[in-house]
Amino acid sequence: MAVLLKKHCSKAVLTVVALIAITHAQQTNTRASAAKKEDVEFTCPTEVGNGNFADPATCKRFYQCVDGYPYMNRCPSGLYFDDISKYCTFKDEARCGPIASTPAPSTEPPVDLATKCNTAECELPYCFCSKDGTLIPGGLDPEDTPQMILLTFDGAVNLNNYDHYRKVFSKNRQNPNGCDIKGTFFISHEYSNYNMIQQLASDGHEIGTETISLQQGLQDKGYEEWVGEMIGMREILKHFSNISKSEVVGMRAPFLKPGRNTQYKVLEDFGYIYDSSIGAPPSPVPIWPYTLDYKIPHECKAGSCPTKTFPGVWEVPLNAHYVEDYEGGHCPYLDQCVLHNHDAQEVFEWLQEDFSRYYEQNKAPYMMPFHTNWFSIKELEQGLHKFLDWTSTLPDVWFVTMTQALTWMTDPKSLKQVNSIEAWNCVKKKENIPPPSCNNSNKCALSYKNPNMNFTDTRYLETCAECPNQYPWLGDAGGSGIPGKDNYVPDNVRK
Ligand SMILES: *[C@@H]1O[C@H](CO)[C@@H](O)[C@H](O)[C@H]1NC(C)=O
Ligand SMILES: *[C@@H]1O[C@H](CO)[C@@H](O)[C@H](O)[C@H]1NC(C)=O
Ligand SMILES: *[C@@H]1O[C@H](CO)[C@@H](O)[C@H](O)[C@H]1NC(C)=O
């Protein structure tokens, strides 16, 4: 039976998932945004030690002093720093500082670096870790563990790839319980067709967010940028594909460059359940997903992984794909391995060998991350279809969405009981998923001005909703034409 937990303070009840993401960090301190080291003139008061201090110049910022060094923080969009309670809040409640006599709050631990996995303290369903990241949850033996396969597709969905993606999920491919196989899409905005995305969501695939603009260098940007990109993307999906916000609970950072602690703070603040942006180097035994209560149990390939703990937030890492002699190299996204000189049979065998490292060892979920590129090469696409047909014959292989996989992990069931997992069932129509895309969608030609260029261009957007005034973009997810209109308030400060 699925446990249904609310994220505290959050109105969003996760009706789909029996997934638990209690984030203790939210209850305490910093509603503060990401701390960013900058050259600032602010001097931390020496007599009071660590703490948060109002920025004399603006109420939208404050400084977090850590061992005498001032880190400049911005309040989340729309909020202001209250110098009495020392956190960001609504404008009419914020008492702007600096207020002379306010004592600094008693100090927070200065650098909250995550420690190594402590299995004695880390218990399901809230927490999961293992020393080297390879252990099966629930102490199951590999032969009792279902082999999950996670098909993920990143970027825009449009005419270039839609039919190819649909073919992957053709009706004759089913899980052992007779339900159609499912996958997960991490959507980026530009060139996306929201009518098609609505259909994918309506078919029961999971929709997560990448970002609106796929800008480079986002990993070094601040809280507001991440909110604009990621929460803005979620708003666009709501607006133009009628996908409920409570269904969008997963995130993938563009180019697999996680945004250090900042991205995870946004994730936590806005009620996401998991991230899937962290690449793991090739390892003989693949890594299972884990919560960010403890240090990441593998090398961080991107170099911009979170260093703090984010209790209860799941990371579904991207294990490197490779075969023993490294023919084709190794890659997080399958289309980044060099297989284009192979024929379909060779591609199939390559995938089979890569997969066997999971299937014959610890049955960690086999993630198959794709960009549209994979499907532009016939041999790769055919090789994938051979692979999918072959795995469909294995009795213990399940193609599930990310949240379905995490639901299993929070309450691991042995293979014999897997048929009873509600979240893996398809008999009851899921609530909260949008209706099928409409037959008379609007094909909107919209003016679009890239902020970095001073000419106006046209972008097309297809949707069952009404055409907006302008191409939706950062700060204007609804396409109202009013720049900087949007104002996203984290769940944990919403009253
Ligand atoms: C949006 O989806 C909901 C179900 O989640 C449905 O009741 C509603 O009619 C849909 N709205 C439109 C405009 O299609
Ligand atoms: C859309 O078209 C299909 C097939 O042409 C039809 O079966 C369906 O009823 C139509 N849906 C709506 C909402 O008009
Ligand atoms: C773009 O703007 C710059 C300065 O604002 C101007 O010098 C330049 O001519 C403009 N370019 C175009 C193509 O309009």
TrEMBL record:
Q: Where is the Chitin-binding type-2 domain?
A: 41-98
Which residue windows are coiled coil? Answer: none
Sorted alphabetically, the keyword list is: Signal
In terms of InterPro entries, this protein maps to: CE4, Chitin-bd_dom, Chitin-bd_dom_sf, Glyco_hydro/deAcase_b/a-brl, NODB_dom
Query: What Pfam families does the record point to?
Result: CBM_14 (PF01607), Polysacc_deac_1 (PF01522)
Q: Which Gene3D superfamilies match?
A: Chitin binding domain (2.170.140.10), Glycoside hydrolase/deacetylase (3.20.20.370)
**In the record, which residues are listed under signal peptide?**
1-25
* Cross-referenced PANTHER family: CHITIN DEACETYLASE-LIKE 4, PTHR45985
Report the protein name in the record. Uncharacterized protein LOC108558303
In its UniProt entry, the species of origin is given as Nicrophorus vespilloides
